[in-house]
Every structure is written in C-alpha cells, then in structure tokens.
Amino acid sequence: MILTGHEIRSRIEADDIVVTPFDPDFINPNSIDLTLDDRVLRYRDPVIDPRVEPEVVEEKIPEDGLLLEPMSFCLGSSREVVGSTKYVPLVHAKSSTARAGLFVHVTADLIDIGSIGTITFQLYSTLALRVYRGMRIAQMTFWKPQGEITLYDGKYQGSAGPQKSMIFRDRHWETLTS
Asked: Per the database entry, which stretches of residues form a coiled coil (predicted)?
C-alpha cells in the first residue's frame, strides 16, 4: 500500500518517516520531492572493476549550474536526509526531469527499510542538460511493508553526500571460485 501525500506529511510529523530538511511545499499527491545537493562524483577509471575500490573525482555544482554532457554519468545526492524504520522508500525521477533527458536512479530505486541518509542519485544524461543545486530532481514514495521487519544495516547506512559504488566490499565471488 502506497502512502498518500497527506499521510507522508502525517508520518513525517510523527517521526515515522525522516525527511530533513522538510518543506511541506514538496509534498505531492503520493510522494515528496527531493532536491539535488551541491556536489557530484565522477568515476576516474574508464573501466570499473568490481573487485577494486573505484577512484572518483568530486565536483562542486557552480551557481550557474553544472553541464552534463550527452551520454555522461555521475553520482549526485539529495540535500535531504531521508528514510524510515516503518515504511519502505522508493526513489523515482520526476517526470519533468525525465522529459529533459535525465535518468535519475532508474536501476536502484528501492531503499531498504531502516536506511537513513542522503540518497545517491545515479545521473545519466541522454541530452546536454544543466543541473543546479537545490533543483527538484527526484521524488520519493513510501510503502507499508507486510511481515516481520529486519532493518537495514549495510555499507551505505548513514550516507552523507554522493556515495561511489562499494561493490568491491562484496567478496561473495571469491567463495564461488574456490
């Protein structure tokens, strides 16, 4: 069951959902808007090896915006710290962002229940597009779980700012090849 915008606001006010800072004007009929923070990460290596920690370069988003080149990829993050121990958050692109040619968080939209932190956005631009800090770039919905809850306690817990891939910490393939 998805929460309505009115219920999202009510659950934020009851501290069942975390959205900090909270702007009630960002509430939609069944979601809340998230804004882009002030920096992005870009991978340095042309090939990502999942067994090796990737090198990244951090860029500040200037006042006049950051130009994303066509077919480029970077990691941004929400300005807001979000999450819940009672509801399952999902991140979606805003339709206006998608219509401008920017894919936001398309392949990893499920946020585990109990995860509290900023959201890392996977930004993939299909067209040349300028992004600005503070722009409404995504929206989050909240879903009521059914069954026993196990809270997230993984490698991205407490995220602050954009987070590079930490797949290199997942060493499960070593047991498969032994």
From this structure: none
Question: In this model, does residue 168 exceed pLDDT 60?
Answer: yes
Q: Are strands 32-35 and 88-93 parallel, antiparallel or unpaired?
A: unpaired
- pTM for this predicted structure: 0.90
How many whole angstroms separate alpha carbon 119 and alpha carbon 1? 22
Which residue shows structure tokens 């819940």?
84
Task: Using the predicted structure, report yes or no on whether residue 178 has a pLDDT greater than 60.
Answer: no
Tokens for 111?
A: 């946020």
Q: Left if phi > 0, otherwise alpha if psi is -120 to 50, otherwise beta: which for 117?
A: left
Tens digit of each residue's pLDDT (9 = 90 or more) over 70-110: 999 999 999 999 999 999 999 999 999 999 999 997 667 88
Q: Which residues contact 42 (CB under 8 A, 6 or more apart)?
A: 56, 57, 59, 73, 74, 75
For domain 5-156, is the CATH number 2.70.40.10? Answer: yes
Average pLDDT of the residues in 14-23: 98
Arithmetic mean of pLDDT over the chain: 92
Contact 122, 73 (CB under 8 A): yes
**For residues 21, 22, 25 and 29, what is the CA-based torsion angle, rounded to 10 degrees?**
130
Spatial separation of the C-alpha atoms in residues 146 and 82, rounded to whole Å = 21
